[in-house]
Amino acid sequence: MKKYNVAVVGANGAVGEEVLRILEEIDFPLAKLVPLASSRSAGTEIEFNGEKLIIQELTNEIFEQEEVEIAIFSAGGSVSAEFAPAAVKAGAV
């Protein structure tokens, strides 16, 4: 089964945490999980599938750098409007 590089924008917010819980619960085929948030939250640790992951800063370049294939936006509408085009440009859906 193919595995995907998935970014969760707003990974440390209430909706982002629920998205992560669901991805874990359904055992989504992940090659890599890329938790993203604002510069204020970058560097914070989260736990996913028993592993500690570091939240990275949301930038226009991060989607290409991390080879993101699927981007889930769980931050506010203005954040999505600003950064979704960069995700699409990098080839993410």
UniProtKB/TrEMBL annotation:
GO terms for molecular function: NAD binding; oxidoreductase activity, acting on the aldehyde or oxo group of donors, NAD or NADP as acceptor. Signal peptide: none annotated. Transmembrane segments: none annotated. Gene3D superfamilies: NAD(P)-binding Rossmann-like Domain. It holds the Pfam family Semialdhyde_dh. It comes from the Bacteria. Residues 5-92 form the Semialdehyde dehydrogenase NAD-binding domain. InterPro entries: NAD(P)-bd_dom_sf (IPR036291), Semialdehyde_DH_NAD-bd (IPR000534). Belongs to the aspartate-semialdehyde dehydrogenase family. This is Aspartate-semialdehyde dehydrogenase. It comes from Sulfurimonas autotrophica. The lineage of its organism: Bacteria, Pseudomonadati, Campylobacterota, Epsilonproteobacteria, Campylobacterales.
